[in-house]
Amino acid sequence: MSASEIQKTRIINELRDFVRKLLQDPKILDQSLDIARKHLAEEGSSADVMARIANDISDTTSVHIPEDPAEHSEADKLYLELLKEVVQEEQGLY
């Protein structure tokens, strides 16, 4: 198996574990979106805002996202980016 295939397999496994958590506790999605809405309305650099979102999600749900953005896995980054996109799309509808 090449390094690229190993990386893809690791990312898929992380995403599977994450989706499993969401299926076991659907409230995580609502809580995460509420947190993202709150922080995306605040001032600050994008990196700081995303770090605050990650920290609040870790503090209030069973999802653990490392405090340091440099330690975020690909699945962490994807989840945070998707939250941001969903909130921005919501705001675009109003």
Per DSSP, the total helix count is 4
Structural class by helix and strand composition: mainly alpha
Order of H and E elements: HHHH
Main beta sheet: strand number and arrangement? Answer: none
Characterization of this structure:
This protein has 94 residues and is mostly helical. The protein has one domain (3-91). It contains 4 helices and no strands. Helix 2 packs antiparallel against helix 3 and helix 2 crosses helix 4. The longest helix is centred in the N-terminal third of the chain and has 22 residues, at 3-24. The chain starts with a helix and ends with a helix.
Write the layout of secondary structure elements.
Elements: H1 3-24, H2 27-40, H3 46-60, H4 74-93
Helix pairs in contact: 2-3, 2-4
Concise overview:
With 94 residues, this protein is an all-alpha fold. It has four helices and no strands. The protein has one domain.
